[in-house]
């Protein structure tokens, strides 16, 4: 009787140990850092050809991401441009274009919520 009672309680202890960690993994511990909003932004690629710049942004996430194309022109007299925000809806790809009169120094995309 002692032999069977010991193995039954050992089996129960193993069962409890294997269930407890799974339940604990689903809870968010206090003070935990949640994922950064950059993890849910549209993925954008930019290209420059001469004085033309293009950004293509694909949003694989369920929330809309508003993207803007920014262009810094190389010449001091050439006006830098910032596009109006474009809504990249979920599962959608958007294209934004812009230009300088002459060379382009830098191109980047910003994200708004």
Automatic annotation (TrEMBL):
Keywords noted in UniProt: Signal
Location of region: Disordered: 30-49
Signal peptide: 1-24
Name this polypeptide is given: Secreted protein
């Amino acid at each position: 009787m002692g032999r069977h009672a010991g193995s039954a309680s050992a089996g129960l202890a193993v069962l409890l140990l294997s269930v407890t960690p799974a339940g604990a993994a689903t809870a968010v511990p206090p003070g935990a850092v949640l994922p950064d909003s950059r993890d849910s932004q549209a993925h954008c690629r930019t290209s420059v050809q001469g004085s033309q710049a293009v950004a293509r942004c694909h949003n694989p996430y369920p929330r809309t991401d508003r993207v803007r194309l920014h262009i810094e022109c190389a010449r001091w007299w050439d006006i830098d441009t910032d596009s109006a925000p474009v809504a990249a809806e979920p599962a959608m790809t958007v294209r934004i274009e812009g230009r300088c009169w002459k060379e382009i120094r830098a191109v980047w995309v910003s994200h708004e919520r």
